[in-house]
Structure formats: structure tokens, C-alpha cells
Amino acid sequence: MRPTTRRALLALFAVGVALLALGAVPSFLGSGDPYYLVATPTDDAGPAVNVTDLSERRYPYLTDALADDRSTPYRTGPLGLKEAFAHSPFDERDALAIRNPAARSNGTVLVEDGGRRYRIRVIRA
């Protein structure tokens, strides 16, 4: 095998390993105070996002919050590396706001789950 070909294959292998590591490592990079997605029951009227049939795989923090009033903790990563590669409660809140922009107000989103209404927000504890 030619030296140039060998170096090119090693470089491709190194890039592949680095990309795999970036996909697997973010969950271990948590630091700082945890963030939670919180679901607060409310009687507010107005437009709401219907979350009754949303997937638990797509919205894990939201389903935790609706079941227990607060989701599992999410910790940010050093230097902003984790946020680029990991799913967060901020992503879920923003995705809900995109589904119905009129349901968003002051950093919260009004959702409806099986006839019950909740205010969804992200807190740092």
C-alpha cells in the first residue's frame, strides 16, 4: 500500500472515530446546575399545543414533566460542545412553540394533554 493511501485511510479512520466519540460522549460531559422542563397545571385559556399523541422518543423531557411535574435533569457541557450534539429541554420547548407560535408567552408554552392544560417552562435548579 502506498504511503499516501495509508495516510489518507488513517485520516478517514481518525475522523470517523472522532465523529463517533462526539455522538456518544456528550451525555458524559454534563457540568453545572441541572435544567429541568417543568409542567405546571393551569386554567389559562387561549391557543395551546395538543401533546396527547406526541412520541415519548421525540419528547422525553416533556413526557417526564407531564408524568411527574418535572423532567429528568439536563446539564450543559463545557465550552458549548454538548449542546451541539445532544437533545435538550430547550429543544423540546422551542419545538412546541414552533408547532403553535400563539401558545408561547414569556418563555413558556401552553400545552394540552388529554383535556388538561399545562404551562411548560425550563428552570435551572
Output the structural class. alpha+beta
Backbone CA Rg: 20 Å
Q: What's the story with the biggest beta sheet?
A: 6 strands, mixed
How far apart the termini lie comes to 57 Å
Which range does the strand content fall in? 25-35%
In helices, the fraction of residues equals: 25-40%
Q: How many helix segments?
A: 4
Task: List the SSEs and their pairings.
Blueprint lengths: L2 H22 L6 E11 L7 E2 L9 H9 L5 E3 L4 H5 L3 H11 L4 E2 L2 E6 L2 E9 L1
Parallel strand pairs: 2-5
Antiparallel strand pairs: 1-3, 1-6, 4-5, 5-6
Structure description:
This protein has one domain (30-124). The chain has four helices and six strands. Strands 1, 2, 3, 4, 5 and 6 form a six-stranded mixed β-sheet that branches. With 125 residues, the protein is an alpha+beta fold. The model has no long low-confidence stretch (mean pLDDT 87). The chain is 38% helix and 26% strand.
List the keywords.
single chain; 125 residues; alpha+beta; six-stranded mixed sheet; 38% helix; elongated
Give a nutshell description of this structure.
The chain is α+β, with helices and mostly antiparallel strands. The chain is 38% helix and 26% strand.
